[in-house]
Structures are given as structure tokens and as C-alpha cells.
Specification:
single chain, 101 residues, alpha+beta, two-stranded antiparallel sheet, 3 helices, 6 strands, 18% helix, extended
Length: 101
Amino acid sequence: MCSVFEPFDLTGIMSCNKTLDMWSFIIVTLALTANIAEIHNRMPVILRDDTMSAWMDLQTGSGDALDLLLANRGSDLVSHPVTKNVGNVNNMESRLKSRFG
């Protein structure tokens, strides 16, 4: 049982195309860690708390940004099985509500 819920930040990159007057956004993914591979084929980068300010700093260079991505939280994540009913937006039963919120 999870004793504490810790919010986390997914890593993304946002860019503005001034010619098209359009913003785009991507979620950065990296190679899977063993604890995620059985769940899904992609792993978004989840930054550690101590790296978020450096990731958001416009002065962070590309080499430093890569180091921040590689220092992610992938291997320390823990999963818990849930019923497929949880992933269906039509199911609003009280027994499916999060115990965290």
C-alpha cells in the first residue's frame, strides 16, 4: 500500500512557430526502465525535484539538459495493478476514486 502520494513533473519541450503563429508541445521520452517495460512501451521522463529549476532555466545548455533527462525518476517508480474500469471515463463509481484526492 502506498503511504504517501508524491506529485511529479513530466518533462516537455514547447516551441513557437512564428510563421504559422502556432505553439507545439511534446513530452520527452527515454528508454524504458525494467519496472515500466511490462506496463507500456514508452516512458515519459519524470524529473527529480532537484532538477526542475535547471530544466526550466533558459540558460541551461543542451549538454546539461541531457544530463538532467538522464537523472530522471524512472527506476524508483512503483506500480500497483488496477481494474480496467479505472481507465474508462464512463465509470464514475465511488469505489474507483483515488484514495489520494
